[in-house]
């Protein structure tokens, strides 16, 4: 007799609830460690930059030569793809309340719940609750289905399946002046619906301009010319 099939959730995942929570905990730990490593790496980079700045100021290295070497090094680093963990820093979503009261139920036939197709990342509180699903390949962005909508957005009604626990950003979002949603909110004229399908955020490293700005600042200081920030 075949083994019973593992339960599948609305997103089509094969993990049961206990496994899912275990995987989430493990990934969360990994991401926290990654973030700590990144923070320590930034500190090491800052120390090197400070050392370079000191050498320039004392005339021990030429700022232009340093700039050229920096450009080469930055180009090499820029070609390395690195993941970035995104976790929104917001307060207690239950204490803060809603940002604005919008008659979503009557507007969904017009707007198509466009807001639920947007990419956003969760807060630590959202993740800790374990209700809102996040994308394991893009931590901690909201998990989206193949149609581009949040996995918690009911396909038939476009209602939120986790309304009481919905993420912080969902409570704060105000669509009234968002041209992606409305041509005219008051006149109830929706913006044209984009083609279906999701555009996933890519978990890539963001370019850190601090190296450039510090090196530039040192060159300017060495030449006696400094721009306003
Ligand atoms: S786009 Fe605006 S009106 Fe439509 S469901 Fe979202 S918040 Fe409500
Ligand atoms: S959690 Fe609910 S309100 Fe937020 S994007 Fe998903 S379906 Fe929409």
Any overview of this molecule?
This protein has helices at 17-57, 63-78, 93-96, 104-111, 124-129, 168-172, 210-223, and strands spanning 182-184, 189-190. It has 229 residues and is mainly alpha-helical. It has two domains: 17-83 and 205-223; 93-190, no CATH class. It has a two-stranded antiparallel ribbon. α1 (17-57) runs parallel beside α7 and α2 (63-78) runs antiparallel to α7. The chain is elongated and about 70 Å long. One iron/sulfur cluster (SF4) is lined by residues 116, 132, 150, 152-153, 160, 162, 166-167, 170. One iron/sulfur cluster is lined by residues 116, 132, 150, 152-153, 160, 162, 166-167, 170.
Q: What can be said about this structure in brief?
A:
This protein is an all-alpha fold.
């Amino acid at each position: 007799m075949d083994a019973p099939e593992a339960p599948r959730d609305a997103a089509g995942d094969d993990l049961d609830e206990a496994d899912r929570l275990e995987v989430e905990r493990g990934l969360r730990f990994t991401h926290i460690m990654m973030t700590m490593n990144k923070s320590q790496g930034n500190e090491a980079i800052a120390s090197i930059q400070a050392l370079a700045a000191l050498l320039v100021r004392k005339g021990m290295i030429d700022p232009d030569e340093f700039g050229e070497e920096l450009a080469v090094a930055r180009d090499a680093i820029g070609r390395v793809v690195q993941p970035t963990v995104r976790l929104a820093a917001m307060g207690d979503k239950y204490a803060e309340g809603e940002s604005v009261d919008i008659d979503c139920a009557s507007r969904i036939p017009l707007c198509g719940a466009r807001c639920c197709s947007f990419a956003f990342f969760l807060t630590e509180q959202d993740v800790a609750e374990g209700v809102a699903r996040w994308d394991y390949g893009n931590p901690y962005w909201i998990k989206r289905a193949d149609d581009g909508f949040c996995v918690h957005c009911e396909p038939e009604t476009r209602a939120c399946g986790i309304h009481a626990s919905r993420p912080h950003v969902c409570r704060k979002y105000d669509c009234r002046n968002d041209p992606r949603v409305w041509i005219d909110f008051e006149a109830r004229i929706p913006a044209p619906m984009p083609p279906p399908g999701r555009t996933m955020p890519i978990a890539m490293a963001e370019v850190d301009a601090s190296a450039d700005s510090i090196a530039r600042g040192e060159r300017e200081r060495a030449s006696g010319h400094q721009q306003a920030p």
